[in-house]
Amino acid sequence: MKHFARLAAVSALALSAGIGAARAEGGITVAMQLEPPHLDPTSAAAQAIDSVVYSNIFEGLTRFMGDGSVVPGLAESWEISDDGLTYTFSLHEGVTFHDGTAMDAEDVVFSLDRARAEDSVNAQKALFDGIESVEAVDPATVRITLAEPNGNLLFNLAWGDAVIVAPESIETIKTNPVGTGAFRFANWVQGDRIDIEKNPDYWGTPAVLDKATFKFISDPTAAFAAMMAEDIDAFAGFPAPENLPQFEADPRFQVLVGSTEGETILSINNKQPPFDDIKVREAIAHAIDRQAIIDGAMFGYGTPIGTHFAPHNPAYVDLTGTSAYDPEKSKALLAEAGLADGFETTLHLPPPSYARRGGEIIAAQLAEVGIKAEIINVEWAQWLESVFRGKNFGLTIVSHTEPMDIGIYARPDYYFQYDNPDFQALMDTLNRTTDPDKRTGLLQQAQTVIAEDFVNGYLFQLANLGVAKVGLEGLWANAPTAAIDLTAVSWAQ
Amino acid sequence: MLRYSLKRLLSLVISLAVASLVIFFVIEVAPGDPASFMLGINAQPDTVAALRSELGLDVPKWQRYLDWLGGMLTGDFGTSYTYRTPVSDMVAERVKVSLPLALYALTLSTALAFPAGIYAAARRGRPGDMAVMGATQLGVAIPNFWFAMMLVLVFAINLRWFGAGGFPGWDNGVWAGLHALTLPAISLALPQAAILARVMRSSLIDILGEDFMRTARAKGLSRRQALWRHGVRNALIPVLTIIGLQFSFLLAGAIIIEQVFYLPGLGRLVFQSISSRDLIVVESVVMLLVFAVIVVNFLVDLAYAVVDPRLRART
Questions:
Q1: Which residues are in the Solute-binding protein family domain (chain A) (predicted)?
Q2: In this complex, do B84 and A192 lie within 8 Å of one another by their Cβ atoms?
Q3: Average pLDDT over every residue of B124-146
């Protein structure tokens, strides 16, 4: 036993020495809640894939920055034809994939054609709608021709689903991703961690860190413990907001609070009576006290929203006043709709705590005005099947995390079944507009239309909560996409 | 003995066949299409259809069942929907964590329970016995996940003797691996030890009242000698049954502990696969666990017959 104790002590020392060494060489261990199913960002919706590979391993023609702006990526510059139909991209020269093969126009053609192909399993295939052809003009020039102008193209190409991959390595991309990024894939112990290391041949500004490890810790209590025990250096998307004050008070840690693209909404089945009556939807909107939900379900983290748009976007309009908390007005509206005694409906809640905890509070708030919402807890797969695809629900709560997804309101078959031809025409005009100022005007108009139609109950923008050791710099505070971009992360000297 | 073994073997095969049928269809009936789950809410219907056919989900259920069953007989558990790697490789990787953890916990629990049970039985009704019984009562009552959190709080966060979780992999050496498994093993072992100690105690007390124990004393053995030479050995039979049951329980029941300590074991694999609708992995792992339980029970049955010849005569 004594022998064992000594050995255990020695191995503990060796272990901690190992951790110390990693830090001295400029390594980092960053934890996240979910493990990616595989490492191909172009064939699944799982955000955990982007978290690991976006920018670190794979890059697109354009890329998102931490503030949400879109900047050149593998494309150095581009020219847009006057009719808005042709985009000519000049690629950076001398870019190589991690396997040593050159990245040229043919790889871009391959990647985009693969994504928009008939049998493509790209989860965001709609991003490539309207692309007529992708051609390699010469090794450093790519021309994309559109069927009609699309002001969103540069934005769309920045998504993780549009990164550039190579035909040589596509067969094994799911377990051995080969990209052009500042880090290259090193190792994956399934269920435990993914290691990446600095790409010494990177074409752009090289990464500061020599290596990085992604760890997967799903349990909120375990996440807290791992951080407190300093097993990990940073946690992106920290799952237990209730513990953040404790980290804030601890001099060892810094807390990063930013914004995400996640609009958390109380979705309403617009086709189902009585929700097909705008008065009923308005009544629901006025019955909701957003701040109470943010405080109760999210421990105060989150920004109230009045429409389906991210508050950090320059085109955002604050419409929270349109649906301000006013239970008396709510009751009056219900009476006008002939439902003075209220009515009964269902409230489907998927697993995340914003939905489960928030749902309890909303049900109580609705009950105040006479609406009895029966809470039905469902798993994600069930939610997708019955609520999202089957449209078999009255109310549900979900966070829509796709960037700039106001376009879903132009799809009458989308699960909340909002069918407004004027709005659809507006979106059409937006898609055909490339002028930034005009686009801003149209986006603001669109936000107002859906807010005044009370399509859904708009609750709050999901906060991006991160915890990191003091001295770690360059982590994104906001999450314009699900990336944990480590390319600019370093330890303070 | 041969007839007895063959009979047991036949019932083992039937149990496995029934289990496979139940597992497959119960899991398949649960709502949630793996393809639309993986592609999320922006996917277009033709994309989902393309993925369904890529995953082989567009063939009839019974055919998938037969393929799965046939594959398993040859050691091929199919390909995971989400990870796209062979399920058998994934399981093999996870067993490397779960099996040592279960064995470690089992070793700890027997090492604790045997002396405690024997000590209590020998001091029946006296303060020593009461203390042990009180402690085991507590051990049975405390949920192991709560206990695990307390261990993390004290030994990982405050004392820093251990990490809060995770597993370095056996490549980093046996000691690093065991070190990482120590807190999880303790939290799994303690409730087990409590049960085992109680069984050991009561079984030993029963034996102490038997005629052959009186004979042993009459032949001049001291109380202690009689207890060790005749008592403990005979008391082991029910204890072995419990150990057999506990082993399968440890293998399957570590799901929560693996969550708390984020260990890449079988339990966590099942947990992840269920939430991602990776049906084939869930089915295969559950089948494997059922197989383990049934085989352990089979071995326990055989062990009875070896230990107690009367059983062989009766069947």
A1: 70-397
A2: no
A3: 88
Report whether A363 contacts A347 (CB < 8 A): yes
Rounded to 5 degrees, what angle do the CA atoms A352, A375, A462 make?
A: 30
State the CATH number of the domain containing residue A134: 3.90.76.10
* Interface contact flag, B85 A122, Cβ < 8 Å: no
One domain for residues A156 and A280: no
Partner-chain contact A222 B261, CB within 8 Å = yes
Chain-chain contact of A381 with B31 (C-beta, under 8 angstroms): yes
**A151, A269: one domain:** no
* CB–CB contact B164 A228 (8 Å): yes
B262/A37 CB distance under 8 A: no
- pLDDT at B42 (0 to 100): 75
In a domain, A215, yes or no: no
CB-CB: which of A10, A191, A216 is closest to B269? A191
Strands A211-216 and A193-198: antiparallel
Across the interface, do B43 and A219 touch by the CB < 8 Å criterion?
Answer: no
Same domain, A412 and A267: yes
Specify the pairing of strand A86-91 against strand A75-80. Answer: antiparallel
Can you give the CATH number for the domain in which A301 is found?
A: 3.10.105.10
- Which DSSP symbol is given to A206? P
Report chain B residues whose CB lies below 8 A from the CB of A379.
Answer: 32, 275
Q: Does the pLDDT value for residue B291 go beyond 90?
A: no
Residue with tokens 């303070």: A492
**Does the residue A237 lie in any domain?**
no
Given this model, what pLDDT does residue B314 score?
Answer: 52
Domain boundary residue, one of A171, A193, A217: A171
Kindly give the residue spans of alpha helices, DSSP state H, lying in A33-96.
Answer: 47-53
Handedness of CA B4, B10, B13, B15 (dihedral sign): negative
Query: How far does the CA of residue B181 sit from the closest CA of chain A (Å)?
Result: 12
The residue segments making up the domain with residue A332 are 262-462
Kindly state whether residues A317 and A458 are assigned to the same domain.
Answer: yes
CB contact under 8 A, B40 and A119: no
Q: Are the CB atoms for A240 and A299 separated by under 8 Å?
A: no
Residues 6+ apart with CB under 8 A from A312: A67, A68, A259, A461, A478
A145 and A282 co-located in one domain:
no
- What residue in B sits closest to A35 (Cα-Cα)? B272
**pLDDT tens-digit map of B144-200:** 888 888 999 999 988 889 988 888 888 888 999 999 999 999 999 998 899 999 988
Which tokens in the block code for residue A219?
């349990």
- Residue to mutate among A16, A152, A194, A231, with most B CBs inside 10 A, is A231
- Distance to chain A for B77, nearest Cα, Å: 17
pLDDT score for B309 = 63
Task: Look at residue A231 and tell me if it is in a domain.
Answer: no
Please check whether residue A41 lies inside any domain of the structure. Answer: no
Rounded to a whole number, what is the distance in angstroms from the first to the last CA of chain A? 43
Q: How many domains does chain A have?
A: 2
pTM score, two decimals? Answer: 0.84
Domain ranges of chain B: 2-73, 94-313
Interface residue of B42, B98, B159 to substitute, partner A, most A CBs within 10 Å: B42
Nearest CB among A45, A189, A216 relative to B169 is that of A189
Beta pairing partners, A464 = A258
Regarding the domain with residue range B94-313, which homologous superfamily does it belong to in the CATH classification? MetI-like (1.10.3720.10)
Whether the complex's predicted ipTM is more than 0.85 is answered with no
Residues of B in contact with A217 (CB under 8 A): 165, 262
Q: Which of A113, A142, A171 is the last residue of a domain?
A: A171
